[in-house]
Each structure stands twice: as structure tokens, then as C-alpha cells.
Design brief:
The protein is α/β, with parallel strands linked by helices. The chain contains 18 helices and twelve strands. Helix 13 packs antiparallel against helix 14, helix 13 packs across helix 16 and helix 15 packs antiparallel against helix 16. The longest helix has 21 residues. The C terminus is likely disordered.
């Protein structure tokens, strides 16, 4: 961790925009901590105390760094429970951008451990999540461990990524102790190690989970600062494509909170801003170096999730000005150029919508109706491809939906106990 000369007593400058508060909390690394979990918070109205409690009470391998974004550490610390307040390191990060990318990058740069993780201030970790990630990293050699996500409540599993069925077995193999130690290690490595295409990794858009600090420094991977939307997409997709990755498919969940009403992601913005991260991703050296199958897998996800999502939430005709339609069509053409033939795996309903996106002459009412129609799942139009030859492709609807359902219904496995772990406190 590089530092600049101190500013004054109780404050240590870590960079041009980041100060570590040495007079508050616990600036030194706690004994036994193996992962620095970075929680970014831009307002004391967020449930930061709940996020911190989920780490300190249930994940003793974690050290907690709270990055106070354009706020004083005192304001944010006041919202953390008194029993936890002095167990946290506080950083103050100042920048003019309404994006979490800046404070997250600052926290990752200031990591004190071999592993780092990022976490939203309205999110939580289930007890044992960090231990499960570490055990999987040790068993597989992964530099990025992807967690199981849930939305709003622990049982509402997010079905992405939707991997091969064998990838769902690793946590059980590890927890049940099949075979001898060497045999078990080989099985876990085989079942948990993932592939960008085979395991549909691109459908996960945020770099949540366990990240090797050495890997981040080696690759220079970082969130895009200033991006109001999609600042994490290029980073996480690059990691999936370029570094060893494992998926903790049945481990304790990372719980995404639904408290916040001020997420910038939900704001309807011009297409060039909403999807502004895509052109840079498509021209990045790491992306253009990928093989055709890998580029197609990434682009299929970008269209299904980001492009079609942007159209779906623009549900008023007055939004679709000629400028917006031209921007949408131009972006879709760039996607076709980046991965020719990607659209063959799309459902009939998706192809209908893509055709409308590419043609600004199609009335906005038709564009919006097709965006609605593709979400009426279970109909032939949403299940079948135009060309029957692509019906059973890995990315085509039938196999993709089946894999997603299996991922969502997978029961949790027992939490591993790591040697040397500190005892957990009581659950709240």
C-alpha cells in the first residue's frame, strides 16, 4: 500500500483523493484477517451498520474497510453499532462523481491482505461466506471466486451465472469429504474451476466475491471511474476471460439489499450514457484478442441484459427521439461487427426486438411492445430460435433457462471451517 506524506494528525494521505483516518476505528490489520472487505458508503442514510455487522459477526476472516465517499468518517461511523464502530478502518475519498467506482477503487488499492472484496453499503454477507470463498480459492488456485447471490432475502437466489451442472457439485465434494485428501482436491479443482463460455460467466456483471490483490496489481483491472452505469462490467468480464475463476455455487450467499431508492443504475439516461461502457469494452485489447466463441458469448449477454434492458425501461414513446433511435441502432451494429452471428442463439422474440433496435424506422410503439413480449416467458416465441439448428446451443433459451433454474434451486452446502479462523460472534 503506497502512501503520500501525512496531511495532519490523525490523517494519512493514501492518494490524491483518499485519506486514511488513523484517529478513528482500527486502522491496523486485525490479527487473523485474510480478506480486506471494502464497503463504500456515500450517505449515512444507507444501512451501513447492518453491512458491517454481517461481516464482523459472521465472517471472522474479514477485515472491514469503510470508504466514506464525499462524507466525513464521523458521519458514517455514527451509523455503525457501537460494538462494531472501533473495529473498522475508515477511509475518506473525495471525488465529484456520483459513482461507487471511485471509492471502491480507492479501497482496493489500499488493501492490507492478500485478498480483497467489495460490498455495497446496503448489502450483507451470510455467515461463513468469506471462509467458503477462501476454501474454494485454496482448493482450485482461483484468483477470483464468484459468490452465490440472493436478492432481498437469502432464499431468493439470483440464477447467474448459469454454469454446467458439474460446476454445482464442488461445494458438496468439499464439504462431504469424498475420497482421500488428494482425490478430493482434484475433484474440487475440476468441478469448481469455470470457463467464460461453458459456464456463462458473462451474465454476472459485478466483481463481487474474492479477488487476489496480486492479480489486480498484475492485470491493472479496475472499475471505470465516472461511469454512472456499467462501470464494473468491463472489469468483471475481463477477469472472467483472463484469470482463473471459481464459482461458489452452493456457498453462503452475498445478499443484495433492496433498501436504496437512490441507485444511479435505475435512472433512465440517454442511450449513449446508459450503454456508454460498451464501445470501450468492444475495442479493448483483451476483448479483441478473444476467440470468436468467447466474443459471441460476451455479446449475447450484453444484448440480452444491457441493450434489451435499456429498451424495456424506456417505456414512453417521447423518450425515443430520432437521436436515441440512431444511437441504439449504431450500438447494435457495433455489437454485430464485434461478434458476427451472435444473434443465431436468440429466441424468436429476442430477434424481433433486435430487428427493431437496428431499424430506426420501426415505430417506437412497436419497439416497446417487442421489449415487453420477450419477457412473456414460456411461449414458443421465447423458447425457440429462428433456425432450428441452434435450438440446443448452450446460449439458446432451452438450455440456458434449464441451467438457470437448476442454479436457483440448488440447496446450500455446509460452511467450511478454516484452520486458524477466529470464532464468530452471535448472529443478529
Amino acid at each position: 500500500m503506497n502512501t503520500l506524506p501525512p496531511t495532519d494528525a490523525g490523517r494519512l494521505r493514501l492518494g490524491p483523493a483518499t485519506i486514511a483516518r488513523t484517529d478513528l476505528g482500527q486502522p491496523d490489520l486485525p490479527a487473523g484477517a485474510r480478506v480486506d472487505v471494502v464497503v463504500a458508503c456515500h450517505t449515512p442514510t444507507r444501512p451501513i451498520g447492518r453491512a458491517v455487522a454481517s461481516l464482523l459477526d459472521g465472517n471472522p476472516e474479514a477485515a472491514v474497510t469503510v470508504v466514506c465517499h464525499n462524507r466525513s468518517a464521523e458521519e458514517i461511523a455514527a451509523e455503525i453499532r457501537p460494538a462494531h464502530r472501533d473495529l473498522v478502518r475508515y477511509l475518506e475519498h473525495t471525488d465529484p462523481r456520483p459513482s461507487a467506482s471511485g471509492p471502491f477503487n480507492a479501497g482496493m488499492r489500499a488493501a492490507r491482505t492478500p485478498w480483497v472484496s467489495i460490498m455495497g453499503s446496503d448489502d450483507q454477507l451470510a455467515p461463513g461466506a468469506v471462509a467458503s470463498w477462501l476454501a474454494l480459492a485454496e482448493a482450485t488456485g482461483a484468483e477470483f471466486v464468484v459468490p452465490r447471490l440472493a436478492l432481498g432475502r437469502p432464499t431468493a437466489i439470483v440464477p447467474t451465472p448459469a454454469p454446467r451442472p458439474t460446476r454445482l457439485l464442488a461445494t458438496y465434494v468439499r464439504s462431504r469429504g469424498f475420497g482421500g485428501r488428494a482425490s478430493q482436491s482434484r475433484l474440487v479443482r475440476r468441478f469448481a474451476s469455470t470457463d467464460l463460455v461453458a459456464d456463462r460467466l458473462a451474465y454476472r456483471s459485478a466483481p463481487l466475491g474474492l479477488l487476489s490483490v496480486e492479480m489486480l496489481r498484475r492485470t491493472g483491472a479496475h472499475l471505470v471511474e465516472g461511469a454512472t452505469v456499467g462501470g464494473d462490467v468491463a472489469m468483471v468480464t475481463r477477469l472472467f476471460a483472463c484469470v482463473p475463476t471459481a464459482y461458489d455455487a452452493a456457498g453462503p450467499v452475498y445478499l443484495i439489499g433492496e433498501d436504496a431508492s437512490d441507485r444511479v443504475t435505475y435512472v433512465v439516461r440517454p442511450i449513449t450514457e446508459q450503454l456508454g461502457f460498451l464501445p470501450g469494452l468492444l475495442t479493448a485489447d483483451w476483448f479483441t484478442a478473444l476467440g470468436a466463441a468467447r466474443r459471441r458469448a460476451v455479446v449475447v449477454k450484453m444484448v440480452r441484459i444491457h441493450v434489451f434492458g435499456a429498451v424495456y425501461y424506456r417505456d414512453r414513446e417521447d423518450i425515443w427521439t430520432p437521436t436515441e433511435r440512431a444511437a441504439l441502432a449504431g450500438l447494435c451494429r457495433r455489437l454485430h461487427h464485434a461478434a458476427p452471428g451472435f444473434d443465431r442463439v436468440l429466441s424468436r422474440a429476442d430477434r424481433d426486438l433486435l430487428d427493431a433496435c437496428l431499424d430506426p424506422a420501426v415505430p417506437a410503439s412497436v419497439l416497446m411492445a417487442r421489449a415487453q413480449a420477450r419477457r412473456r416467458h414460456g411461449r414458443p416465441e421465447t423458447l425457440f430460435t429462428r433456425d432450428p439448428a441452434w435450438l440446443l446451443d448452450r446460449e439458446a433459451p432451452l438450455r440456458f433457462m434449464a441451467a438457470s433454474l437448476l442454479t436457483k434451486l440448488l440447496p446450500s452446502a455446509p460452511v467450511p471451517v478454516l484452520a486458524g479462523s477466529r470464532p464468530t460472534g452471535e448472529e443478529n
